[in-house]
Structure formats: C-alpha cells, structure tokens
Amino acid sequence: EVMRHLYQEAAKSVHFGGLSANEALRLITINGAMQLGIQDHVGSIEVGKRADLAVFNAHPLDTLARCVLTLIDGEAYFQYPTFNAADPTPARSSPVIAPPSAALNIPISQTGDYLIVGGTIHPISGAPIEKGVVRISGGKIQSVGASDDSSSSQAVRVDATNLYVYPGLIDAGSILGLTEIGSVAGGEERVEIGDFQPDLMTVSAYNPFATAIEVARCEGVTSTLLVPQGGPVAGLAGVVRLAGWSMPESVVTQVACLAVSLPSLPIRWPTLMPDEKREELTKEHRKNMAEIETFFRDAAHYARRRKAEPNATPKALELNRQFEAMQPFVSGSQPVIFRAGSYKEIREALHFAECFELRPILYGADEAWKLADELARRKIDVIVGRASNYPRDDFEPFDGVYANAAVLKRAGVRFCFSTGESSLSKLLGVEAGTAAAYGLEPGSAIRAITLDAAQIIGLADRLGSLEAGKDADILITTGSPLQAASAVVGLFMAGKPVKLDSKHSRQDDLFRSRPRPSLSDPPTLRGPKALRLPVGVGH
What we know:
Elements (H helix, E strand, L loop, with lengths): L5 H12 L3 H7 L2 H7 L16 E4 L10 E6 L2 E5 L34 E4 L2 E2 L11 E5 L2 E6 L10 E4 L4 E4 L1 E6 L16 E2 L18 H8 L2 E6 L2 E2 L2 E9 L5 H4 E10 L14 H34 L12 H10 L5 E5 L2 H13 L4 E5 L7 H6 L3 E4 L19 H8 L3 E3 L10 H10 L4 H7 L2 H6 L17 E4 L10 E6 L2 E2 L5 H10 L27
Helix pairs in contact: 1-2, 6-7, 11-12
C-alpha cells in the first residue's frame, strides 16, 4: 500500500541520498523500466512509447502535490473528483527541490548564548521574518526579531542564510523510547498488562537511548507525547524531550492526560460468523463495558468523598492508589485521551465521556471528518493519526483519511498530528504535508505539528513556537518541514546544539570508509546497454 505515495518515497532520496530531482524521478520511472527490460515501451515520455502518464497539480517530488489524472495506454483510469481536464486549475508553484546542504557545524557556547542570524524565521505564532535573528540564553529563547543584537558579544553566531528556522516538531502520540526490538520481550515497554492502571506513568519506562529517537530527532521531532497501550485504562501519558542522558532529564511533564481504550464491536459482522459466536462476543463486550463503567463510577465517587473529607483517616476512607490517580480526570481538571478511529468508536467515546463528565481528546480519529461540525460545537480536540493511513473500511472514499485534517480545520476543530509508532515518528512532517496536499492550508499543517500540538497537550507556555521565554527547541532546515526533500541541518534542544547523527548515519560513514578489498577483476556484465536519455527527458 506504500505504492500509493511512491513519488514521496522518491523525494526522500533527494534528502537522504543527495540526488537531484531528475535522478530521483528516474528511480520510479525509466530506471525501473530498464531493470525489467521494458524501457522501449514505458518509463519516459517519448514518441512511440505507451501512453502511461500521471498528471500532478505540482512537481511530483513536492509533498504538497497530488495526482489528479492517471492514463494507462492512453485511457483515463483515475481522475481526482475536483479535477476538470477541460478546464484544469493552474499547477501550484512548487519549491525548488535541490540536494540538501551539509549539516551546520555549531560550536558549543561556554556561556550558553547563541544567535541564529540570516535565516527566514517562522515563529508560528506570528508572520515569518526575513533575515531574522533568534537569541538563545540559558536554554530559553530570549528574543525573536528582525535586527541583530550586537550586545551579545559572548554569543556563538549561527549563520542561517538561505535557510529556514522553525520551532521543534511535536509528535502528539508515539511510543518512542518504549520499544526497541519487537521480538525481544525485554525491549518492549509500551503495553501494560493490567486492565486498570491509571497510577502508572508511561514516562517511567522511557529509554532515552532507543535507536529510533536519534532518527526522529534528525528529522526535526524534538518532543513527543508517550501514549501507553494495553488495557482499557492503560496509564498516564506524559511528554518527553528527545534529549538527555536519563529519563528525568528528558521529561517535560510526567502527566499530560489519561489513556483510555474502550472495547468496540465491529460495524459489520463477518457474513459467515455463526449467530452463537456473535452472541458470545456481544455478551463479552457488555461484561467488559460494565467493568469499565463501574471503575469510572467508583473513581468518581472516591474523588467526591476525598474532596468532601480531605483529611479523612484510612478507616473512614481507605486510600486507593488507582482512584487517587483518577481524581484529576473524573473531576474534569485534566483531559482523557480516547483511542477511537472509526465513526462508531468516536461516537462511543464521546458518549462515554459525556456520561462520566470527562474532558475527552480523540486519538487516531481517522473518521473524525464525519462528525467535524459536532466536534467543533463541543470544542473537542483531536489528535489525528497518520494522514497516509489506509481507509478503515472497504466502502470509504480513497482520500477520506488524506482529507481528514482539512475537513476538521474548515469546521473549526483544533487538531494536531501523531504517528503512533516509534519507527514512523521521523515522518511526522511528511504526514502533515500529505494532509496539506489534500486541502489543508500549509500554514495550518505546520501549526498542527508545533503550536496546536503544544496547546492540546497543555504545554503551549513552553513549546510550539518561537517566542521569548519558551524552551529553545529550534530547527534550522533547507525548506519546509512538510517537504520530504527538506533536511534539518541544525538543531537546538533546550538551548543546546544537538549533533545530527544516528545509528544509520554512523553505519553509513563506517562502511563508506571501508578499505578497498583485494578482489579479482569482475566478470564481463551481460545484458542490454544502459539507456542514456537526453537531459530533461523523464520529467
């Protein structure tokens, strides 16, 4: 199913492989045809070849582009619903797609003072500033403006000319640092086996040296909400910064919300399932829901008694760690994050939250677009999953998940993005870019992975924008974080420069410097001669 965005995969080779735009396009056109021996028929636009053509509304390597028309043997097999071939909308202007610059060499400041100068500053909370200046001191942003600060003579100057400066990206739902090797039980800390564990903090299991953390950091992700998996009440979700030698150094907040997963029966039962099996599953579902409702009802009763008798002795009110942890959630002072993807699951989560007077945040919510107006009216925040997720049902529109965020935005729902997995957190910017390709305004897409994410998880006073007083989590990039071809070339976390390397890049450097082996001459290669196209052919 990754084939759906093959052109985005090619764009990553510009970022990671240093290819030109044309070289990257050859990877998914003529080069494949040559390897299959069918280059005389397909793979490039030339007279006499088959009319297999794809029409995009922007350069295919632009993450904000989408295919609007596909021809196979000259016949239209796909046409985007809003595309009118007789009167097409002019193509959107795409950014210059060029191989990325080398990472900046940012020296360590002895005073902790830095000046980022010359780049285009994107504060998120305000308009971009051309050739702006960001001043950092003591791990915080001291000022953001259009003029230099010559009084900072001790500061290390970072030249960001022709580059772009953004706040660090926030993945509002992942298991980064909670998993390492899936097949090794000792490397899995994302799932709690108990059904009701509101007293467990997910950040306590965070491993700051998990391999995927460095990879995500190199792509601009500086913090994430760790959402536990497991039973109906899996634990307390907390926020970590992707830096630090230990868990306490990494933690931004131990408790941001409570993670809840309600069981849900299928929308449609399998046709061949016996009636007895359906009845059994329905009965089990009712039993599970009754246990969950009882737990929340008891927790609310406990909270009311604790409030009425704050100094009650254990004899009058037995201390219960689980119910103690539930107090801020059943009282509505802190939010509850509900895993809910389908329309049915979302409806069930909202009904449950209303019955127990909870502050819900929807998590995943691939089909939130189906009740966007209601979510806006009730002021319910949504943490959407990956924009490139496959539709949840065979009868869903192909672009339902793609356009989910755009529909929520038009309705007035506040939302942000999550990747859900440790290995996919690196794609946070590209996922937001995919949503922008299907109707979401690019500025709103950037805001959804920065300031809006910070607001939803309750950390807007520290993260999400470039403003004086906030934590200095800052990216310096070659282009928009939404673009798969863009690269992060400079990174500050809590006001300190961070080296942009990972296990992947270190292994790459190691094997590139491998001594030349003493081998015999290679045999003569057989096969068709390489097809050399004139410059420009293959676009």
